[in-house]
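PT: before anyone asks, these are the final sequences, not the draft ones from last week. 367 residues across everything. Please model them as a single complex and drop the result in this thread when it's through.
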Amino acid sequence: MSSQVPSDLLYAKSHEWARIQDGVATVGITDHAQHELTDIVFVELPAKGRHVQVGEACAVVESVKTASDIYSPVAGEVIETNPAVVNDPSLVNSAPYTDGWFFRVRLTSGAPASLLSPTDYVAQIGE
Amino acid sequence: MAKVIAEMLVESVKMELPDVKTVRFQWPEGYDPGDFKTGQFITVYWPHKPKYKRAYSLSSSGLDRGLYEVTVKRDGKMGTSIVDWVEPGDKLFVIPPAGRFLPVFDPPGKHLICVAGGSGVTPFRGFVREATKRGLDTRITVLYSVRTTQDIIFFDEFTDLEKENPRFKFHVTCTRLAPDHPWSGRRGRVTPDWVRSFIDDPAHTVFYACGTNEMVESVEHLVLHDLHLPKEQMKTEKWG
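LR: through. Structure below.
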């Protein structure tokens, strides 16, 4: 199955995406990740005000078959979280890049150089 | 016949390791799961949290009627609640077995090479139990990757089954043992060369891999790309 990889996002090797606008990154997990996890039944998000580092485990998703940490693809302060995915975790499966976003981070600096372009992420997931 | 979700009593529990527990569910009176098979999984949820479901491979076999056993690692909310809290007399809802991670016992004469990581070994207990109980000529080789010797689930049971069933072999590799640990078995991750060393008749071998995505994909690559075997000879169960 071919996963969606939108061209306007950056990607972490650990399958999170970041949409960066005006110094704020919106973060979620990729279509490939949600497909691998299968039906997501639980999401735990970081507290607002928490400072996260690149690669820091700061959220948890559980699917019917596994529990996984979610790593921040960017560094900065968590300024907003998405209560909709906590109330309805299936949004991560049905709309991973829109309604299924996880949290927003005010960046302490720009996008990390470690983030992948859409092309590089496609190559990583082998599609 | 439609498969029915049933509330089931926990008949017994057994701590396999400090963070791994086997739970035996007792079928309620009149319950009929239909034709379920060794290697399938059941999905469970608490009565007060119907949306929060987790699927676990059966560690019992399809020959075991009247019960289901799952062997659960303390992982996530469900794994933690089961390992830390579930006790005989509790009740959970159980969605009947499903899945296609099935041992090929028919036609006879196959060699099943089963690669497992951590709690990914649980369905293979069912494979070996059924083959042994039925006296099948199917060869089963379990290649089991764990961090340390403290993490081997079913060590005693697999060792006993090896004695009972000469066609079953159980091999462990430890990935994170201290260099001075007295373990005399294999160390290091599952490698294609290690798996290859157990293959003597590729056309009559069926490969199974249950564990992390990385481990499963590595075995898949070996079987499908390096050995050029058909997909029907590779069965996988990934868990993240």
